[in-house]
Specification:
ATP-binding, magnesium, P-loop_NTPase
Length: 201
């Protein structure tokens, strides 16, 4: 199984979900583009307990914590979707995108072009805030327009049943997990969520 993790925006919880999924599936993990340090690969690695997962080096590490298209410009790097290739692995693979689905890789291409190119399903992380219904439904519409398979939605943050209900009504996909506003993110917290999401995959 290969799964691409995207979100409705930056800092929505992609790395935490990636750690949870990597732990649940004992999968390999890969972040194709890292813009700014410290890197998300190190964060995920420190939250995963199993010994089977392999953490594949990023295709590009950019210095500026910004949209990949701008970070690449600053570093003098040319990013193009054609230059990204899925790593070879006999294991499950969790792939973490950069920022939200429509974050630009260059002037013409977007992060969401990667799962579309590879024809792999997406899990969408939606954190809940004022305006998140609009952002989530717009992202869902873009996934549908591109015929990208949506495996499910993960809600991150304090529960909001009204928001979650209307999003799921229009998503045509299940809620795979609800991540609470945890005081501290530890390996134990990740293991507990891993058991939960495994039941819903």
């Amino acid at each position: 199984m290969k799964i691409f993790i995207t979100a409705i925006g930056t800092d929505s919880g992609k790395s935490l979900l990636s750690a949870i999924l990597t732990e649940a599936l004992e999968a390999d993990y890969w972040k194709p583009i890292q813009a700014g340090l410290p890197g998300d690969t190190d964060y995920v690695k420190q939250l995963v307990s199993n010994k089977k997962s392999n953490f594949i080096p990023e295709a590009y590490v950019l210095n500026t914590p910004a949209s990949p298209h701008y970070a690449a410009e600053v570093d003098g790097v040319k990013l193009s979707i054609v230059n990204f290739h899925l790593p070879e692995t006999g294991n499950h693979l969790v792939i973490e995108g950069a920022g939200g689905a429509l974050v630009p890789v260059n002037n013409e291409e977007f992060v969401i072009d990667l799962p579309q190119k590879w024809k792999i399903p997406v899990i969408l992380v939606a954190n809940l805030y004022l305006g998140s219904i609009n952002h989530t439904l717009l992202t869902l519409n873009e996934l549908q327009r591109r015929s990208i398979e949506l495996k499910g939605i993960v809600f991150n943050g304090n529960a909001n049943p009204s928001s979650e209900s209307i999003i799921l009504q229009h998503a045509n996909a299940p809620c795979l997990l609800r991540i609470n506003q945890e005081k501290e993110i530890t390996k134990e917290v990740v293991r507990n969520y891993a058991k939960e999401i495994l039941r819903n995959l």
